[in-house]
Amino acid sequence: MRHISELDLSEFNEGGLIFDWDGTLADTMWIYDGSDQQVIKKYSGIDVELDEIAQMRDYYLAHTTDTNTYLGWAAEVAKKFQINKSPQELLKQRLEIIKTALREIDYKPDAANFIKAYRVNYLGKMAIATSSTGEAIEVYRDQNQKIRSSAHIDQFFDPIYCVKDILRPKPDPEIYLKVLKKWGVDAGNCLAFEDSLHGVVSAKSAGLKVVNMVDAVQHYDQQKIDELCDFKASSWTELLSSCIRR
Q: Is residue 71 classed exposed, middle or buried when 0-12, 13-18 and 19+ CB atoms within 10 A define those classes?
C-alpha cells in the first residue's frame, strides 16, 4: 500500500472517481446498526452491542449469495435471535427507523469540500456506487437539507447507482462494472473510495484502484482491507490536504 501523499488524482482525468456512500462519504453506519439494535430489542428483548451487530452484518454481506441483501439480513436477524416475525415485517420496521434518521445525517467532515475541490481542479467524472436503497437515495435527494445545501448529489454525481440498479450486490463487482460501462472507460482510469471489506472486494474485482476511507465501524476487517487496498486515508481532511492541487 502506498502512502496517500503519493496519490495523483490527475491519473484519473480520462475516467473518474467512484464513491461508496455509507461509511465512506456519509456517516451513516450508526443508523443501520442502531435500527437493527432497536428491532432486536423490540422483538426478542435482547440487548446487543452496536459493534457486534456491525460485525455480524458485514460477515453476512461478505458471504451471502442473496440477491436482496436487505431482506436476507432481516431473515438472518430473525433466525439468530429467534424472532417470530417474517423477514418482511422486520425489514419494514427497520426501514421506517432508518428513513427518519437519514433526513438528519451529513457528509463526513470535509467530504463535501473534497468533492467540490475535485470538480474545480480535475477533469474526471464522479459517481456513487452504493448498497443503499433507492428510497434512501430519494431522502438524500429531496428531504435531507444538509446534503442538499452542502453538495447536492445530483449536481456532482452521475451516475448514482444503488441496490435497485443491480442484480448482484457488493462484494460482486457488478455495480462498479455498470459505472464503467456508463462512462465508457477502462477500470484503470478510475479510482474507488470504500470503507468496508465487501466494498473493497467489489471495486478490486472490477479492476479499480481503491482508497480505503477508514471507518471505526470496520476495524475488525482492517487487516484484510489493508492487504487489498492501494491507498488508505484516515479522513477526507487528509485527502483534501494531500491530494488536491493548490
A: middle
Whether 167 and 187 share a structural domain: yes
- pLDDT tens figures, 18-56: 999 999 999 887 888 889 999 999 999 999 998 889 889
Helix axes 87-102, 69-80, angle to 10 degrees: 110
> Which residues share a beta bridge with 193?
19, 211
141 and 228 in a single domain? The answer is yes
Q: What is the pTM of this model?
A: 0.86
CA–CA dist 6, 16 (Å, integer):
17
d(CA 125, CA 159): 9
Residue count (the chain) = 246
Amino acid, single-letter form, for residue 87: P
Q: Which residues have CB under 8 Å from 241's CB, separation 6+?
A: none
Phi and psi (nearest 5°) for 20?
-70, 160
Beta carbons of 177 and 164 less than 8 angstroms apart: no
Record the cell numbers describing residue 175, joined without a space: 455495480
Q: Are 153 and 224 members of one domain?
A: yes
pLDDT tens for residues 80-89? 999 999 999 9
Contact by Cβ (8 Å): 16, 190: yes
Range of the domain at 96: 30-102
Residue 245: pLDDT band with limits 50, 70, 90 = low
d(CA 244, CA 246): 6
* Straight-line distance from the first to the last Cα atom of the chain, in angstroms, rounded to the nearest whole number: 25
